[in-house]
């Protein structure tokens, strides 16, 4: 139950994105390993025993509360804000660090990276600053992000483009619409390929990713009696590993009929292949391999040429939900799998 109790402690430390100071303070004192990086918001702890470096990473922030604090333990689960995404994963990291501090037989070096503001998107991402200020991350032979994955190994991740598409019409009195050009009509016509876009299955290294594009917002109009002269749609495009950001932008321009402005373009992560460490982790844990049908911070590590995967105890169906929770049995399973992996003969 130690890892469940640690999860509850972390759940009860509020840390909505941008307000993670209390979590930083707690982790700084709770992890009994050498602190090898500390910039006042992100932390890296490490234990060196010889062998390849395995880096475990997790974000300390949550989405805003929905009346789901404080947390509680009930029906074999820790319930509360961030329990699945990803206070449960952080609790596994803390307990694993405590175990590693007292375990002389580690088969590798281990580092633990805690960082804020993951839920805010690429502009607020602190990891590039961390990478600039320490060389330790680039030593990692395998990076494990403890995002919720239902205890499956989720490999790679989708790229993520957000864009505005603007349609310029001509405003007019709604009693005489023929005097203008309704921008909403132009928007529906220009967005038709996206509105009818069917998910495209793309196989990558034996896994199937789904390429999808959606209209997520549409803003137009100033009054009930005015034909709108301008409409702006927000489009979100998720593209598979193997496609470059430039190729993704070109593909999106093919699909829209208006003026396209790229707001953000986060690249995908490659699917690790020929990784002895990943193979050992999968075999020791009996872990199923799946594609990551989303964007996560594994992409930040993959962009540096590192093999990075998602593996965490949280259930994806509960992430960001008002009834967010993580099963205690899944917490204990993740911890046990990682202990066996790190204590074993980790391949070089």
Could you characterize what this model shows?
There is one protein chain. The protein is an alpha+beta fold. It folds into 2 domains: 231 residues, Zn peptidases (Aminopeptidase); 108 residues, Alpha-Beta Plaits, CATH 3.30.70.360. Helices cover 29% and strands 28% of the residues. The chain contains 9 helices and 18 strands. The strands form 4 sheets. An 8-stranded mixed sheet has the order 1-2-6-3-7-17-8-16. A hairpin with a 4-residue loop joins strand 1 and strand 2. Helix 1 packs across helix 3, helix 3 runs parallel beside helix 9 and helix 7 packs across helix 9. The longest helix is centred in the first third of the chain and has 19 residues. It is elongated, with a radius of gyration of 23 Å. The mean pLDDT is 95.
How many distinct beta strands?
Answer: 18
Rough outline = elongated
Beta-strand residue fraction: 25-35%
In the CATH hierarchy, what is the architecture of the largest domain at level 2? 3-Layer(aba) Sandwich
Mean pLDDT: 95
CATH class of the largest domain: Alpha Beta
> Can you count the helices?
9
Terminal Cα span:
33 Å
Main sheet record: 8 strands, mixed
Roughly how much helix do the residues carry, as a percent range?
25-40%
The sequence of SSEs as H and E is HHEEEEEHEHEEEEHEEEEHEHEHEEH
- Structural class, from secondary structure content? alpha+beta
User: Are there runs of 5+ residues with pLDDT below 50, and where?
Assistant: none
Rg estimate, integer Å: 23 Å
* CATH homology superfamily name of the largest domain: Zn peptidases
CATH topology of the largest domain: Aminopeptidase
Any idea how many domains?
Answer: 2
């Amino acid at each position: 139950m130690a890892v469940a109790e640690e999860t509850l402690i972390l759940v009860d430390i509020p840390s909505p994105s941008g307000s993670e100071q209390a979590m930083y303070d707690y982790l700084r004192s709770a992890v009994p390993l050498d602190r090898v990086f500390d910039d006042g918001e992100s932390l890296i702890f490490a234990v060196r025993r010889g062998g390849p470096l395995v880096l475990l990473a997790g974000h300390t922030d949550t989405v805003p509360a929905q009346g789901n604090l404080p947390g509680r333990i009930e029906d074999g689960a820790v319930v509360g804000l961030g329990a699945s995404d990803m206070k449960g994963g952080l609790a596994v990291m803390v307990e694993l660090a405590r175990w590693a501090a007292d375990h002389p037989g580690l088969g590798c070096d281990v580092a633990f990276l805690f960082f804020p503001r993951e839920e805010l998107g690429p502009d607020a991402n602190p990891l590039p600053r961390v990478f600039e200020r320490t060389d330790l991350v680039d030593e990692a032979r395998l990076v494990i992000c403890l995002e919720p994955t239902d205890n499956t190994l989720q490999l790679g991740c989708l790229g993520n483009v957000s864009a505005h598409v603007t349609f310029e019409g001509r405003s007019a009195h709604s009693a005489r619409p023929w005097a203008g050009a309704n921008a909403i009509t132009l928007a529906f016509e220009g967005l038709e390929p996206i509105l009818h876009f069917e998910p495209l299955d793309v196989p990558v290294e034996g896994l199937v990713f789904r390429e999808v594009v959606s209209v997520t917002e549409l803003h137009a109009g100033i009054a009930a009696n005015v034909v709108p002269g301008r409409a702006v749609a927000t489009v979100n495009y998720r593209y598979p590993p193997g496609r470059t950001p430039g190729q993704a932008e070109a593909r999106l321009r093919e699909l829209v009929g208006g003026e396209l402005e790229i707001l953000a373009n986060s690249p995908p992560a490659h699917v690790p292949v020929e990784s002895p460490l990943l193979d050992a982790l999968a075999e020791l844990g009996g872990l199923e391999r799946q594609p990551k049908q989303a964007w996560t911070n594994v992409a930040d590590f993959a962009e540096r040429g590192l093999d990075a995967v998602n593996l965490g105890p949280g259930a994806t169906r509960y992430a960001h939900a008002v009834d967010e929770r993580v099963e205690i049995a899944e917490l204990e399973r993740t911890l046990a799998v990682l202990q066996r992996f790190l204590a074993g003969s980790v391949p070089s």
